[in-house]
Structure formats: C-alpha cells, structure tokens
C-alpha cells in the first residue's frame, strides 16, 4: 500500500531529465474516450532499467505545473473503472507544494513499452458481452442493459430499431426489427427552436395526438435529457437500473445514461436536445422527433472528447424508431435501451430479461403474463490475476427469473458457441436456444429452485504467472438451463461471452 506522504513512496531517484512539453488529444472513440498522453522516454534520454521479477514497485509521478490549454482534467483521465484487481493505487494532490495526498484505488491506465525478455506483447483487457436472449418470457417490454464491467454499448453508427404494434388502436405486443436508418438531423426533424443544453431535467411535449402502446396510451411525452422518453409523467433519472425501468412510468429508452446535453456546445455548435412534433401531414400522420444531437457524457469533462447522436421517432400510427448516429462514448458504461410498459414499486412489469439488441434484434414481444425470461449474469470481468493477488479466474454467475416447479437449474460452460443459437432439445417454449456447443456443467442446483440462484465461485486451472499468459485473449461462453419438474421440458437463458485479459 502507498503512503499518503509523497516522500515515503519514493525510492532512489534517477537522474533528473529536462522538463518535457506534452501535447494531449482526445481519443475520440477509443476505449477510454478520454485523453491520450504519449511520452517517449527513449527519445528524451529518460529511459531506465526496471526488473519486475525483483518484486519492487514501480512509481510513476506526474505533475502539471501550469493549467493545460484548453482546460482539461488531465490527472483524472483514462482511469480504471474498478478497484477489484488490486494491482495499483493512485495518490493525488491539488497543488505542487503538497507533501501529502489522497489515496484512491482507481489507478491511472498506463501502457509501458520496454526492451528485453518477458512481459506481454499487448495489454489485452478482459471484457464481458451479453449474447442472445432467454426464452419463456411473457412480457410486453424488452431491454438491453450493458451493466457488466467491460460490456460495450453496441448500438451506434447507423444502426436502428423499429417497433411495430400488432394492433395500432389497442396494441398487445411489438414486432421489433433491426435496421440501418440514421437519425434525421434536418430542420424538418429538429424544428426551428434552440436545443436544450441542460444537465438532467425533463422537457414536456404535448404532441397533439394520442399515442397507443402495449399497456396503455398517452397524449404527453416527458423527455428526459438522459436519453429516454416517459409515456406520461416522469422524473429525470441519470442512473439506469432494470428495476426502475420496470416499476415506473412506461418509457422508451434509446440510451438511458448520465448524459450532459451542454457538454459539447463549444466544439459542436448546435449540439443539445431537440424535441419537435410535425403535424403537417394531417390527422393520423403526426410524428414526434426527439433528438440528442452531439451530446456528451456527464463525466467526459473535456468538450468534444465524447460525442453521441441518437434519436427516438414516435409516430401517431404507433410505430417507434430508435436511430443511432456517430457515437464515440458510452463504452464500458451502464446504458439501458428498450421499451417498458411501466409498473409500480409494488407490481413491476414482467422482467423480459437482458437481450443483445445489436444481434438479437428481430423478435416479437408477447401479451403481458407472469413469467420472465431466464437470465444469466456474471459477477465480474474475467481478468487473469498473478499469484500474489488471487486465483487466475474466480467468478460467480447469477441466474434470475427462475420459474416455479423447476427440478434443476444448471450453468454450463464451453470454449465454443453457436451464433446464432440452435433450437434447444425438448424446449418449453419457442425461441429457447442452445448457444454453448459442448456444454460442460459448471454448477447445478436441485429443488427447491428459488427465483434467483447464485453459483459457487469457480476457478480455471490456468496455472501461475507467467504460464497463465497462454490464456490471454481466450474466450469462454456460459449459459443457464432449467428443467421443469412437471413437464420435463427445458428452457435456456441468454449466453455470456467472457474474454480473458490482464485487466
């Protein structure tokens, strides 16, 4: 552990080198979506010898003697999103004269290039991806929630989703299909008014028509600056959760997240939230355009470093479109997309389970019932640890929406996967798919099967470092399967793709 006193952490200091002028630039679409700082030690005569096998910590000390131009939060850029790996610590202070600082487990992300044997050829990161969808759900709603650490928001750059009601006058369900319709950024869609450039807040739009959706109807849209439209009254919310999605006012969410609609006004004039209703086509043809144009994330404090454009188009006919333009942000963050028929805290709507809307985007929801889709979620990213920290891979999985009368629930694992999945043998309902090719049972529980089950931790025999490096970049797939004790039929969950990496 680091000391909170700067001098205590310093070992024998090397020869001082001349001060360097550092130019920083936004990555603009890279993984961190922050600032990239590149310092060539060899070219500046500052290269040094470091042998990691000696077990001596490496200390990197960075000072910013003058305010950066343009102003940017340099010391906090490109930092890790988890304290779980325990490999590094960061200590910081706000003045150059400070002798002590504040400790944080969120260490800066640093890539070191070196000459000599050993090490890894590339800093491969671990990540998690939800694939497909569970089956057996009786839900009018649907959603994709990239809530796993490392999962990436994949609806961007011209992708779109279209929601068509089965009965425009009284919809029971949506027919959902994927497409390639980009946001309409013309004056006909944006309207003549100035955009809203606020952070959080609701814009009330009375479109002049009644919009019918599965579960209800409304003549008022409450547009949340954070990427969603309430079909009725709603309060702005910058922290997406599945439970809130299910137990509040019905909602259309294109990218529910903590956005800031005024973040990029200096680099992208005209950016912000636009809400406009076009009634020029006459009765029955009204359409409301809700457009988040070139907005930024709340935590991307440098204007222009994080730029996202997306749109919801709500037609009087009942058809809805989610459209996505250029999106350089939202990677690795909790973002929720989908439709909720709404509910209350006491009676939330049925949980349809997490769905991969980039790939699994041609489906039909159902009339509202009581059964949710079997859902699988991992506890963490599958990073490869060194022996001094812990096992090479130690994860649990949570299976939720387990129906009553289940004889057994199992989580299976394999190195290969069907894409798309194949029909599950003896499936309990249409749409039950097997994703894992040669499933090996990772964990199994028998009656009584509760609505939620968490597996025991599992560890792969990866060996000790550096032998574990042979698994770097490897991929595993997991999926849950339930067996009904009454019908002896099976149902399957979504699958999880686990990519093994260093961090």
Question: Overview of this structure, please?
Answer:
- The chain has 3 helices and 32 strands.
- By secondary structure, the protein is mainly beta.
- Strands 7, 8, 15, 16, 17, 18, 19 and 21 form an 8-stranded antiparallel sheet that branches. The chain has a 6-stranded antiparallel sheet with strand order 6-20-14-13-12-9.
- Strand 16 (272-278) and strand 17 (287-297) form a beta hairpin.
Shape: flat
The main β sheet shows up as: 8 strands, antiparallel
Oligomer: single chain
Portion in beta strands: 25-35%
The number of helices is 3
The structural class is: mainly beta
Question: What percent of residues adopt helix (DSSP H or I)?
Answer: under 10%
Number of strands: 32
Low-pLDDT regions: 28-33, 387-392, 463-467
Radius of gyration: 25 Å
Distance between the termini: 19 Å
Average pLDDT, to the nearest integer? 84
Keywords:
503 residues, mainly beta, six-stranded antiparallel β-sheet, 3 helices, 32% strand, flat
Brief rundown of the structure:
This protein has helices at 6-9, 187-190, 242-247; strands at 24-26, 35-37, 90-92, 102-104, 127-131, 142-145, 160-165, 174-179, 202-205, 211-213, 216-218, 221-224, 228-230, 251-256, 259-260, 272-278, 287-297, 308-315, 320-327, 336-340, 363-364, 375-378, 394-395, 397-400, 406-414, 417-423, 433-436, 440-446, 453-454, 458-459, 475-484, 490-499. With 503 residues, the protein is mainly beta. The longest helix has 6 residues, at 242-247.
């Amino acid at each position: 552990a680091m000391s909170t006193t700067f001098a205590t952490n310093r070992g024998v200091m090397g020869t001082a080198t001349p001060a360097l002028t550092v130019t920083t630039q936004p990555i603009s679409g890279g993984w961190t979506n922050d600032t990239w700082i590149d310092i060539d030690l060899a070219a500046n005569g500052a290269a040094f010898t470091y042998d990691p096998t000696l077990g001596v910590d490496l200390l990197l000390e960075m000072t910013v003697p003058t305010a950066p131009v343009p102003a940017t939060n340099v010391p906090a850029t490109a930092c890790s999103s988890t304290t779980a790996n325990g490999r590094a610590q960061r200590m910081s202070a706000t003045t150059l004269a400070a002798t002590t600082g504040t400790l944080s487990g969120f260490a800066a992300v640093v890539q070191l290039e070196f000459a000599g044997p050993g090490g890894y050829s590339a800093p491969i990161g671990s990540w998690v991806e939800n694939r497909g969808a569970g089956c057996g759900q009786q839900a009018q709603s649907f959603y994709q929630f990239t809530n796993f650490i490392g999962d990436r928001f994949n609806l961007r750059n011209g992708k779109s989703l279209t929601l068509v009601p089965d009965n425009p006058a009284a919809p029971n369900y949506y027919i959902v299909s994927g497409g390639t319709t980009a946001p309409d950024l013309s004056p006909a869609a944006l309207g003549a008014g100035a955009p809203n450039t606020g952070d959080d807040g609701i814009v009330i739009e009375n479109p002049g028509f009644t919009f019918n959706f599965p579960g209800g109807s409304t003549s008022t849209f409450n547009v949340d600056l954070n990427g969603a439209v309430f079909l009725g009254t709603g309060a702005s919310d910058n922290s997406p959760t599945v439970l809130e999605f299910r137990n509040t006012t019905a909602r259309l969410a294109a990218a529910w997240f903590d956005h800031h609609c005024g973040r990029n006004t200096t680099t992208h004039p005209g950016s912000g939230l636009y809400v406009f209703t076009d009634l020029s086509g006459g009765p029955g043809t009204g359409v409301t355009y809700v457009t988040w144009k070139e907005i930024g994330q709340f935590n991307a404090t440098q204007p222009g470093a994080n730029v996202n454009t997306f749109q919801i188009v709500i037609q009087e006919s009942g058809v809805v479109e989610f459209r996505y333009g250029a999106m350089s942000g939202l990677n690795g963050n909790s973002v929720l997309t989908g439709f909720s028929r709404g509910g209350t805290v006491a009676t939330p709507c049925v949980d349809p389970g997490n769905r991969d809307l980039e790939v699994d985007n041609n489906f039909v929801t159902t009339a509202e019932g009581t059964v949710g889709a079997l859902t699988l979620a991992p506890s963490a990213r599958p990073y490869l640890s060194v022996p001094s920290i812990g096992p090479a891979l130690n994860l649990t999985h949570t299976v939720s929406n387990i129906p009553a009368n289940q004889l057994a629930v199992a989580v299976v694992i394999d190195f290969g996967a069907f894409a798309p999945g194949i029909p599950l043998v003896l499936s309990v309902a249409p749409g039950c798919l097997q994703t894992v090719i040669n499933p090996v049972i990772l964990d199994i529980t028998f009656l009584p099967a509760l609505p939620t089950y968490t597996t025991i931790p599992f560890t792969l025999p990866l060996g000790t470092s550096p032998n574990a490096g042979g698994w770097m970049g490897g991929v595993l797939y997991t999926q849950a399967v339930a067996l009904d004790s009454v019908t002896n039929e099976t149902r399957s969950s979504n699958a999880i793709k686990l990519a093994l990496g260093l961090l």
